[in-house]
Each structure stands twice: as structure tokens, then as C-alpha cells.
Amino acid sequence: MSEQPRSRRQTRAAILGQLLQSGGMFRPPLAKAVRLSEASLSRILFDLKAEGLIEEVRRPAPYFGGPTALVSLDDSVALGAIELTVQRLSVGVGSMSGELHYTERLGLPKAPTVESVGRVFREALALLRDWTRRRHVELAQIGICVPGLGRLSISGNAIIRCDIERLRALLGEMFANVPVAFANSVVGHAMFHRCRTEDYPFSGAHLFVFVGQGVGGTWMDEAIEADGLQPVELGHMVFGEGGPRCRCGHHGCVEAYTSLPALAGLLGIAEPELLQLGSDWVDAIPRSSRMRQELRQRLFRLGLAIGNTLNVRSCPAVAISGWPSLLPERERKPLADGIDSCLLGGLKSAELSLAFVPPSAGQDPNAALAFAASCLACRGGMPAEATEAA
Ligand SMILES: [Zn+2]
Questions:
Q1: What domains appear along the chain, each with residue ranges and CATH number?
Q2: Ligand 1 centre distance from Cα of residue 249 (Å)
């Protein structure tokens, strides 16, 4: 975090971000983490509590004479989560701590079009609106995760046909006054792991790599800043001509070798079946020596893509989420070898920390819920369009 003076919004965002990442903190370490005096922190916490964004619960003191009131995010804040995957659209309502109170999953047609995806969205939003109306729940934020969403494809998506501007207009009609944010699914999964994975390995700057239905990454910073995160399209690095066709239209992208659908193809099962097996596929599906050899090559290629990304922008750490995390260490070693062989100076001299976190595909709309929570934290729990004095 910078040492420049912070606005009220930034200070509130820092506090809410810390609470989101930690799940709850006592006042003294919280004050230290956000670089505030306990008196200043106290004043802001008073406001946040009055606005229903945080709560303080009495807990046994961590040491004799220590603090007893644990500050955490108020679980009554309701967030809307919408997540699009290749197979379905999931909607849900959940809390800042990641608990889902309501989930609905709607199947997508086999060959989705802008119109059919739009219809499923409308249906999902109607369900969400009915559920919240019946319970008099007011959503504080809606977070929407879409695979393949990027700066260049804000209105036309190469992976799932959908018109974001049209969806935005629909949300404006059906959920007027609720702040809405869209993100690439990679950003949602990054936020999900950062906030929900126990013992997430990094708190400072790192590259988060997601190996799911697609392969992508995003640069993470010390502070939670969901809004500013841009997807890194490292999955569409092309390795030679004539490789397998990628969903982006090119041939030989690293994604075409290492995504979940590519893995399913190699293992000889359908992708939904593989998703259903979850973490169990590693033990459930026997891998012939030919398959193991092929997996090694593919992981090496993924390593090359990550290493090349780090050559463009260096970074002290990489977290990888996805199916490679489930393999025994020796089987996923080619991935590290791939990074090593193309990273300028190699893995060791770059002092790169590499960590594997579990896959999170198939848990929709949990990533969208984590994204919604981080959006609310990022704007300091203040209205999206509020102007402020620094
Ligand atoms: Zn591609």
C-alpha cells in the first residue's frame, strides 16, 4: 500500500478489505494492518457499524489482558452472485463471509447464441428478484463473472456468446439502484481464493493462474482491488502451428492443451463427468504411461506460458489453481521445469515462490459471490457514484 494520504473511501476500503481477507480481526492488529491509530480506527468502525457493514463479537482474549471484541463483516449484508460457465448460469444470494443462502442453476443450450444466453439471464434475474422480494432482502452489490471477458471483448465474447451491454441494461431495469460489476471469471476465482482459501499462500504481489475451462491469470496486489484487476490472457499463447484448435479460433494455444476440456479429452471422458468427479479424478481415472507422458508435456507447456508471462512482468510469486494442483508433486514438476526453462535467470535465481491451491471450478456461483464482496469492500461500502473529499 502506498504511503500517500488516503481518502475516506480508501481508508474504509482498506479496513473492509482486511476484514474480508482475514474473516475477522481484533482492533489492535487491524489498526496496524491499515496503518491507523486505534482512535482513528475507532471512529471509522463506529460509522461502519452504524451503516450495518461490520459487527463486533466478544471472543476470548488471544492473550491475558488482550482485546476481546473481534471485528468482522456484518453477515446480514446480502450480495447477489451471478456466474456464467460453459454449461450453465448460476445465481445466488450470499453473505460477505461467503455463505450462500440461495442458489439456482440454469442450463445453457448446447450451442448458445447471444439471444439464448440473454433469455437464460433474464430468467435467472427474475428468479433472483422474486427471491429477494419475497424475503425483503436488499442487495448491496451484484457481482457477475463471465469467462473470456476482457477489455477487447466487453461487448462481444469469444467464449460464450453474450452481450454485456444488453445484460447491463437488463440489470438496470430489474435491479435499479443496486451496484453491478462484471469481471472475467479468472478475477472471481482469484478473489474467491484470496478471501476463502484457508492458508492462502500469498498476501503480497503475485500472479494468480487459473486452470479451468479456460486458462488465464491476473496480477494480485497487497490490497484487495477487484475493480482494477485485468485478466492476463496467458492461455492464448500459441505454441507452434498445427496444434489443437482453441475456442478462441487459433490453433495450438496453451489453453487447447491444458484447460479442463483438454484434460477431459486426454483422459477420455466427458467434461461434465470430469467436473462431477471433482478432486477424485486423480485416483479414479487410471493414467497410462502414454497419458502420463502427454500430461508432462502439457504441464511443461503451461509452465512455459507462465514463465513467459513473468518475463514480460516480473513478480515474486505465482499461485496456481486448477487440476495440476491435484497431481502428486512429482507429476506436476514439469510445470515448474517449464517456468524454469524460459524465465530469464531461471526459477531459482528469480527467487520465485510457486504455490498450488485447490481447483475451484464447479463451485459456481461462489467465485461471483467473492467478487461481489470484494467490490463492496473496494468502494469502502459507499455508494458507487458518491463524490468525496480526499
Ligand atoms: Zn486460444
A1: 8-73 (1.10.10.10), 78-188+364-378 (3.30.420.40), 199-357 (3.30.420.40)
A2: 6
Cβ distance 33 to 25 under 8 Å?
A: yes
Ligand 1: centre distance to CA 252 (Å) = 7
Mean pLDDT calculated for residue range 245-263: 90
| Closest to 361 in 3D by CA, of 280, 278, 293, 290 | 278
pLDDT tens column, 319-346: 999 999 999 999 999 999 999 998 888 8
Q: What is the pLDDT of residues 6-57, one digit of tens each?
A: 899 999 999 999 999 899 999 999 999 999 999 999 999 999 999 999 999 8
Q: What is the DSSP letter of 144?
A: E
pLDDT of residue 69: 86
Give the integer Cα–Cα distance in Å for 215 and 323.
Answer: 11
- Those residues whose beta carbon sits under 5 angstroms from the ion ligand 1 are 236, 246, 248, 250, 253
Residue from 253, 265, 359 nearest 302 by CA: 253
Cα dist from 358 to 148, 327, 365, whole Å: 21, 10, 17
Q: For residue 277, give the 3-state DSSP assignment.
A: helix
What are the φ/ψ torsions at residue 155 (nearest 5 degrees)? -110, -25
How much is the pLDDT for 389?
45
